[in-house]
Specification:
- With about 250 residues, this protein is α+β, with helices and mostly antiparallel strands.
- It has 4 helices and 11 strands.
- A 6-stranded antiparallel sheet has the order 2-1-11-10-7-8, with no helix packed on it.
- A hairpin with a 2-residue loop joins strand 10 and strand 11.
Length: about 250
């Protein structure tokens, strides 16, 4: 039974007009392992990474039931595993770490290389979740820690603040108040949106909805507060890529 699939890195095409080749896939069953790295002459590894900056035996992945393990055989390089469905969510696997569990369904493994980095993808099975309401011992319903209404204007403000990192996890910039106003004004419900209104919604999110801890040294409407709102919202998936459809189409520059 296949549980984990590795998409092998593709060699660069010899000619620019060549069509991209079909992805090469390595299917793994529970308990099976595959080594990755540069390999040795005459003894290629299951996941070849052809770069002089990558160790000959850089590491190993091992399939389990619905996740996989990553071992880092390097003496100095840290490997990064990105959640391809998350907004910047990732884990780091330190040099010498054996059997680090990777909980993501769609992952990108990134290794430092002589020229930038090399990477390959790993696909795990869809995770299984319990059915809601299936606990026979359940009593009073649990209060929702963060109750957000996606149809509200404050949610649109929060979404506009989070948009750059949802679209590009490496983007560290959080929009300013004026940028949020310009981003939302094309929406009929936000045609009359002002800077003071955006600041009001940010304050409402910080004090009532997401309940940020007060920092006496932080300006009430400063960039630090916006950054903390974005970090909290993305950490707990309060805004997700699927919510981006609530915003106007992005302007191509």
């Amino acid at each position: 039974m296949t549980t984990v699939t590795v998409q092998l890195p593709e060699p660069a095409p010899r000619h620019s007009d060549e069509p991209p080749p079909r992805p090469r896939l390595l299917h793994m069953s529970p308990g099976q392992s595959a080594d990755f790295g540069r390999g040795t002459p005459g003894a290629p590894l299951a996941v070849p990474l052809d770069d002089p900056g990558v160790s000959r035996h850089a590491g190993r992945i091992t399939a389990t039931e619905d996740y996989w393990l990553l071992s880092n055989h390097s003496a100095a390089a840290t490997y990064v595993v990105e959640n391809m469905e998350g907004a910047g969510e990732h884990i780091k696997v330190a040099p010498g770490r054996i059997g680090a569990p990777v909980p993501f369904e769609l992952s990108r493994v990134i290794l430092p290389a002589a020229e930038g980095s090399v990477e390959f993808k790993v696909f795990a099975p869809q995770h299984v979740y319990r059915e809601p309401g299936g606990d026979p011992a359940a009593g009073e319903p649990t209060a929702t820690p963060f109750s957000l209404d996606p149809t509200s204007k404050y949610f649109l403000v929060l979404l506009a603040l989070c948009e750059p990192r949802l679209r590009s996890p490496s983007d560290a910039a959080v929009p300013g108040v004026g940028e949020v106003v310009e981003r939302l004004r094309p929406l009929p419900s936000c045609a009359g949106l002002t800077r003071s209104a955006v600041n009001y919604h940010i304050d409402y999110l910080a004090t009532t909805k997401l309940r940020l801890r007060e920092d006496p040294d932080e300006p009430a409407a400063g960039g630090a507060r916006r950054s903390r709102l974005v970090a909290l919202a993305l950490r707990f998936d309060l805004v997700r890529e699927e919510h981006l459809r609530l915003l106007p189409p992005p302007v191509r520059r």
